[in-house]
Amino acid sequence: MKILTERNGPVTTIIINRPKSKNALDNEAARGLATALEAFEADSGARVAVLTGAGGAFCAGADLKELGGGTDYFPWAGSAGGPLRSPLSKPVIAAVEGHACAGGLGVALFCDIRIVDETAVFGVFSRRWGVPMSDGTTVRLPRIVGQGRALDMLLTGRAVGADEAIAIGLATRKVARGTTRAAAEKLAAEIAGFPPIAMSSDRQSAYESFDRDQAGAIQREMELSLEARRLEAHKGAARFAAGAGRHGQFSKK
């Protein structure tokens, strides 16, 4: 199968499984990825997803061999059935080893957090072949790294390694070689253990703030916080007052 899904408690791991093609997504795999993400979204017991690639690569983008053979590809973000159309309601963590280039960069940018090792390489390598971005990269990349750095990557198509990715905020954390999936799954389990309503409302507010001015964004933050304030905040504050956070002990139970 081109897309594999594994479940461990509240953590769902989705694996792009085309290692001979550096996990490039042909149309079948892209639709399979959309199906896997939709299934995760619909599963009430699944709290956080990890997205990774098999065989030491993350994703090399669209399958140019398929495209070169005359088969067009549907836009992953712009089409109604595209896997990257809009953020899910639950967190997704990218575990990136090897290439995350062209559309694969778009897949990584779709995720909330990007964990890399020393082999990770990001880049708009499709610049060389006249293939435009249609996976959300031109929208999400400037929001993450800033307009200037984004244009540098988009116009030149140059490679950005793990250390530079960390320095510019493109990657979030760097771990030992070959451990990105394990690190991402551990982090996913930690996030899944937090009270879910406040975590989800804070995440949603961060995404929605781009579409509002500052006053409107702050108003929306307050609106989104109401349910967590009603259902979670008092219980959490009571646990803190009872000593749960004393001496740096932040147990979620």
Arithmetic mean of pLDDT: 89
Strand order of the largest sheet: 1-2-3-4-6-9
Amino-to-carboxy terminus distance? 38 Å
Label the CATH architecture of the largest domain.
Answer: Alpha-Beta Complex
Q: Ranges with pLDDT <50 over ≥5 residues? A: none
What is the global morphology?
globular
**SSE series:** EEHEHEEHEEHHEHEHHH
**Beta strand count:** 9
Tell me about the biggest sheet? 6 strands, mixed
Give the radius of gyration: 19 Å
Q: List the quaternary state of the chains.
A: single chain
What structural class do you assign from the helix and strand content?
Answer: alpha/beta
Helix content: 40-55%
Number of helices: 9
CATH homologous group name of the largest domain: 2-enoyl-CoA Hydratase, Chain A, domain 1
Domain count: the total is 2
CATH topology of the largest domain: 2-enoyl-CoA Hydratase, Chain A, domain 1
What is the CATH C level class of the largest domain, in words? Alpha Beta
Beta-strand content estimate: 5-15%
